[in-house]
Every structure is written in C-alpha cells, then in structure tokens.
Design goal:
The chain is an all-alpha fold. It has helices at residues 27-56, 61-107, 109-122, 127-137, 141-153, 163-187, 190-211, 213-216, 220-244. The protein has 9 helices and no strands. The longest helix has 47 residues, at 61-107. It is elongated. It starts with 26 loop residues before the first helix and ends in a 7-residue tail after the last helix.
Length: 251
C-alpha cells in the first residue's frame, strides 16, 4: 500500500556544500567585513582611475571629475549588484538546507532524535541526558527544526542575511571610499588637487588598513602601512601610465 509524504527538497543530505557541523555564517561580522573591504575597493580603484586620468590631462580637472564620478557610479552599482546576487544565492542554499531538515523531521523523526542525541553525546553529555534533551526538543516541530539547523548546519534560521541590506551597504561603502580621492578635484585642479587627493587618500587607506586588524589580529601600524603601500603603488603606476599617454587640452 502506498503512502504519501511531504515532497523531498531537491538538495541531498550529503551533497557538496552541505555545511554539517560548520559554524554560523556570522551575519554581523560579515557585514562589517564587507563594509571595510567595500571602502577599500572603492578608494583604491577610483584613486587609481583618477590618478591615471590626472596624469594624462593635468591641465583640465573636468576630465578627472568625469572619470571619478563614472568610476564611482559604475563600481558602486557593480558592487551592490554582485553582493545582492551573492547573498541571494547563499540565502537560497541555506533555506533549502533548512527545508531538507524539516522534511527529515517530518518523515524520519526517530532517526533525527537519534542523530541529535549523538550530537549531544559528542559534546560530552551523558547518554541518558542527551536522549532526554533530544526527545524534549523534538516535541515542538519548530523548536526541533531550529535546533537541528543550529546543531547540524550551524545556521540560525532567523539570521540568514538580507540580500538588499548587503547590496545597499556595499553600494554605500564603495561610494564612500570612491569619493575620497575625488573631493579635491571638485574644489581645485592641477598639482594642488593631485597632492590634496593623495594626502586624503593616504590617510583613509591607513585607517582602512588599521580597521582590518579586527579580523587579522595584526598590528594596526603594520596593517595600515601595508594598505597604504598597496594603494600608493597602484596610484603611482596609473599616474605614470597616464603621464606617458599625456594628451593636450584646448579651450
């Protein structure tokens, strides 16, 4: 005699990428990291672009401003769109994994209780107590689902990340970084603007490099100087290339 059961999700329990026993995605930490790297990307990329154009057309700042604004908008929209797609796909995968756990709880409840019991035993809990805790948590379907999601997948069903939040934060972070080297050319021109833009960018690069020590644990001075060196090298190269391709302006 046939019997019906909930439709099984497409993803398999042990398919590649099934994050069993892995840690949480770390939503808050991930957002902060994305913000710092977004500022860094915007600053280095637009600084390089602006310095390249400044080296090529040093007598007329309007070309530098045009290039800087174009670089800011193109980069910010690209970062925002990329972050949205990345977070959307990640969230879809996590939601599918959670639905798989829901299906397993509905169709194989005893096996899931044994699985949860084994997880608690591996953490050092006595067998009798582990079995009792697993059985108690499994009485409420939603509590059971959340428990399995946390213990097996390392996921918090309430904290899977917001695609739109990630996209907007990346857009804003990139724009903030990209506008720093542009500000000087909005109020000045020539060598004065190049120097002012370089100094403002250097200070920001050092600050961004120092902020990265939140994740790396390195010295603030070391990380700041390293980031400053990378940005300065990129800017010098593009400025040099722009100077070699120098074009005159008329009017």
């Amino acid at each position: 005699m046939s019997r019906t059961s909930p439709r099984r999700p497409l993803i398999m329990p042990h398919a590649p990428g099934h994050p069993e026993q892995k840690g949480s995605a770390g939503g808050k930490s991930g957002t902060l990291r994305a913000g710092i790297f977004g500022v860094n990307d915007g600053l280095v990329s637009n600084l390089s672009l602006i310095m390249g154009v400044a080296g090529a057309t040093s007598t007329d700042p309007k070309f530098v401003v045009l290039a800087g604004v174009a670089g800011l908008l193109a980069g910010a929209f690209s970062m925002g769109a990329g972050e949205y797609i990345s977070m959307r796909v990640q969230r879809d995968v996590f939601e599918q994994l959670i639905e798989l756990e829901r299906w397993e709880l509905e169709t194989m409840p005893n096996e899931e209780i044994r699985e949860l019991t084994k997880l608690y035993e591996d953490k050092g809990m006595p067998t009798d107590l582990a079995a009792k805790v697993a059985e108690t948590l499994s009485r409420d379907p939603e509590v059971a689902l959340e428990t399995h999601a946390r213990e097996e997948l390392g996921l918090d069903p309430q904290e899977l990340g917001s695609p739109w939040g990630a996209a907007i934060s990346s857009f804003v972070a990139f724009s903030f970084g990209a506008i720093v080297p542009l500000i000087a050319f909005l109020v000045s021109s020539g060598s004065a603007a190049v120097i002012a833009s370089s100094l403002m960018s250097a200070v920001t690069l050092f600050a961004v490099g120092g902020a990265m020590t939140i994740f790396t644990g390195k010295s603030v001075v070391f990380s700041g100087l390293r980031m400053l060196a990378v940005g300065a090298f990129a800017a010098l190269v593009t400025f040099g290339v722009g100077s070699m391709l120098h074009v005159g302006t008329t009017g």
